[in-house]
């Protein structure tokens, strides 16, 4: 163990003590200091990138699941939540605070927080688990595609790649004559790009043209969406994009102004006015991450954790706010039967 200058001073102040007695004193002092500071409790930092239902739900489920598995905040673990509020500079400061505050484990929610934390943690190698991440292998954090166990020994978690192809297939099923879909997306976001790449392929296979509009920040989402409308798109689609999702109301507003529906890969968006939202149940994703974390806290080696894609499907359809989209948008029985919820 490391001894502070004060502890070394014991030997100078008490030269008459035997080595064994002095060491005993030091160990008792250290133990008392550790207990007083709470360091005997496992310290866990939860780092999410922004405030939105997807991440909030996952965080709540994560903490609840940990408690159910015997790891309760304030008893045998200490949990502190951090939120960058969609700000990369704030995120970097948070990651370094987590490192410098000597947390025992970092748990990140979202692709940006995974990337920021992994970069700050490159030398320290603090145990780091992640969730609510679209494409872990594409995040640039040394996770490889050649196997589920091809990841750093201190870093593992759960991937949740949004069902991009399925939501575009649903759009075509609902409107067989669909020819043009528009998507505003953040070019600087790896997870957004991963979804758009899948959308391009799916659209091409279905005879649909995907029209793209770049987004730099949340304030540009409305203009980007309106620009797509001016290009004659018949529907708007949003995949896993942290910036656009924080301003999903702007996409829905542009769609409502033009009388065209919005399709997304986040079930939370339907309640805000999106027509069809097909994605993961992120509360369940948070539960899975809580179970994984509990197993690691119980002794499981992070290097033994496979990186898997966990997508508990959740389809929500909003008919109430989409009555003026035109007769070409007819919800077939096949689609309604798949829905976990229909807002009427």
Could you give a short description of this structure?
With 344 residues, the protein is an alpha/beta fold. It has helices at 5-13, 19-37, 53-68, 88-100, 111-120, 164-174, 190-205, 221-230, 242-246, 248-258, 282-297, 333-338; strands at residues 42-48, 77-83, 105-109, 128-133, 155-159, 180-186, 209-215, 235-238, 262-264, 276-280, 308-309, 313-318, 341-343.
Helix and strand composition category: alpha/beta
Helical percentage: 40-55%
Mean pLDDT score, rounded?
A: 90
Approximate shape: elongated
Describe the 3D structure.
- This protein has 344 residues and is an alpha/beta fold.
- The protein folds into three domains: 5-37; 42-161 and 282-309, Response regulator (Rossmann fold), CATH 3.40.50; 164-280 and 313-343, Response regulator (Rossmann fold, 3-Layer(aba) Sandwich).
- Helices cover 41% and strands 19% of the residues.
- A seven-stranded mixed β-sheet has the order 7-6-8-9-10-12-13, with helices on both faces. Strands 2-1-3-4-5-11 form a six-stranded parallel β-sheet, sandwiched between helices.
- Helix 1 packs antiparallel against helix 2 (19-37), helix 4 packs across helix 5 (111-120) and helix 6 packs across helix 7 (190-205).
- The longest helix has 19 residues, at 19-37.
- The chain is elongated.
- Mean pLDDT is 90; it is low at 1-38.
